[in-house]
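#dry-run=false #mode=assembly
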Amino acid sequence: MPTRRDEARTSRRRAGDNGFRGTIMQGTTPRRLQGMADPLLASMVRAMGLGESPQFAARSPQVMAYVNRWLENGKHRDGAVNPSPVFPDGVAADDPVALARLIKATATELGADLVGICRLRPAMIDLGVDLPHDFVVATVVHEAYDVVIEGYAAVEEEAMRVYAEVSDIATRLAAFVRHLGYPALAHHNGGSCVQAIPVFHHAGFGELGKHGSLITEQYAAGFRPSFVTTTMPLAEDQPRSFGVQEFCLHCTICMKNCPGDAIPNEYVLTDGVKRWLTDLEKCYPYSRLRKEYCHLCVDVCPFNARPYAETYKAFMKQQRQLGYGTPKS
Amino acid sequence: MTQFYVTEVRPHGERSTVGLFYTREEAAAIVRQLESLPGKHGCRYVISTTLPTPAEGER
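#status=ok
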């Protein structure tokens, strides 16, 4: 009779097996499921007498086109590895620095605003998933700040547009890596087993903020990510701090502007990183149980004042006039 | 709704918060999965209903 441990082992999912030749890494970070697969959201939706989140049920044809794009990309996350790769001049197959330079240049050419690389760690993989890769490439495309502050409908369309774009980038980048003879798997909204926050931290993009999203110097938290995991040896970027976690200890702007009062002032520590755990039971009535998307905690973050000074100032003046905690529309 | 925090206590005593869950069953299922991992051998897990605020020395 199988033991509980045996059951756990046999229920594990293995991703990116195509061309496997490395060690298996077992994921350790639980993923909060999306949509009605999320037990909390499902119970709240059912309590409203509904069968689907009002936000997901009300998506526009344009938003559905973006969703279909990443679902289509989801069919091409993995593929055959080229057995006879030819490398560009000056790039050796075993030179991590040259390969990292090539991958970053390619990702940028494909449309990425930021590209970072780090060694894959168990905490970067979903609990229950085994991934036979060693490195992860993170790519980011920013959302247009002047668009997302216009209101909930604009936020949703812009967010989904960028999600579709980053899914294109990861799909093509993974195919490029496989063309160079290394296994590679794309991770995006159409299918992922990579945890964004620890990857971002180690790839040197920035730091986790009080609102629960990673903050970069270039785009604050107004961006969407995708990833490629691979066995290709790549030079790593390093974590970097520009004072976000310390700043968030004393800043309360996202807390005060959150319509659901869902952002706590107290934090916990995960692997030494401060995490302010958003109370999803308070967040979902605004972010999932209305027809419109919510993005307010990210929009009011003072780190937007660096890249978007004038727009941020005008938006915050408007928020002050409306009153803290007032939704945009 | 009661909130359930899962904390990982590592062999040398370091504590790391795994996450926040909204049913004890969900939290317990996560603990079972973590306990099954060879890489987590020697770790123990605590499910609490209060925020696992870091101690003074850990902040």
